[in-house]
Amino acid sequence: MATRRKVVALSGGIGGAKLALGLARVLAPGDLTIIANVGDDFEHLGLHVSPDIDTLVYTLAGLANPELGWGRTGETWTFMATLEQLGGPAWFRLGDGDLAMHVMRTHRRAQGVPLSTVTADICAALGVVPRVLPATDDSVRTRVRLDEGWLDFQDWFVGRRAAPPVRELAFDGAATARPLPAVLDALADPELHAVVVCPSNPLISIEPILCVPGLREAVRACTAPVVAVSPLIGGRAVKGPTAAMLNDLGAGATVGAVVERYRDLLDGFVLDEADAEAAPALAVPTIATKTLMLTLADRIRLAEDVLAFADRIGATPG
Ligand code: GDP
User: Strand, coil or helix: what is 170?
Assistant: First the structure.
């Protein structure tokens, strides 16, 4: 029988889901638990939309839309076309199949079913084997302060195409949110092999997970090595506003700035070959490898590299 290697991954949407899929392919069924960001969640047209959970679920179910980078493959758009015809809001696009997901989630939550249970049921229905756990069942909502004032996350990210510079971030509800018990259990598991911080935006995908009270401490306290993968390649984001946000918030778009976000947690950092010369200054064990995941083979190879690195760290005493 193959040795079990239980892994917990912290993930946002697009970048995180790519590595999560690689990990899912490398690990035995049941060994991967993914802690998902809920800071991007919002209510739209009365529906509870969970963009990062949905990206993870679609990716792991083989249903992700490769052209758009979000939403479902083979999607149809009758709902959107009709909504626009009726004068409804068109800034946030909801495909027909995607819409069913949000309707189901909203309906069940209105019946008092927690987000984590709804997510588990959706995963089961779509044949997703890894456990996808929202960091919390409570509401945590990312907000951004622009020069003109505070905005809800999606109003900036989608509504304003993430263009105006962000001066400050807030996570509404975080102070009173409770971590999901299953998340704490997964991190406290004595058989845990590694914690992988996926190549997600550290400011708006990983921070809203870690700012749930007790969660950062639980990652820090876990006995398994904690390894983060850089979401920057050569000082640039593959997609999205990570580099611009790090610059606008004064940290600088460097792998060093990413490491600083996780300094208290990290046992190892995986950076891209393009950034290899930055490694000695990071003051944390590193490996440099190809981190751009264009194909499924890229995702699997990076997952193998990350796990082999965690193995080496875990085998080193102290
Ligand atoms: P979001 O929640 O949809 O914004 O997605 P994430 O936060 O999970 O991912 C956004 C980050 O993923 C950006 O910083 C991207 O640079 C990074 N990213 C996307 N694809 C890749 C990739 O193939 N390799 C690496 N290293 N980073 C990636």
Answer: strand
Which pLDDT score is estimated for 2? 54
Residue 233 Cβ contacting ligand 1 at under 6 Å: yes
Residue-level pLDDT at 315: 85
Q: Average pLDDT for residues 176-189, to the nearest whole number? A: 98
Instruction: Please return the burial class of 224, using the count of CB atoms within 10 Å of its CB with bins 0-12, 13-18 and 19+.
Output: buried
Decide: 138 and 176 in contact? Cβ < 8 Å. yes
Residue whose CA lies nearest to ligand 1 atom number 1? 13
For the Cβ of 231 lying below 6 angstroms from any atom of ligand 1, the answer is: yes
> What range does the domain containing 180 cover?
6-47+140-146+171-315
* CATH code where residue 39 lies: 3.40.50.10680
Summarised one tens digit per residue, pLDDT across range 17-41 is 999 999 999 999 999 999 999 999 9
CA distance 43 to 315: 46
Mean pLDDT value across residues 78-84: 98
Per-residue model confidence as pLDDT tens digits over 130-144: 999 999 999 999 999
Q: How far is CA 8 from CA 131, 218, 223, in A?
A: 9, 12, 12
Total of domains in the chain: 1
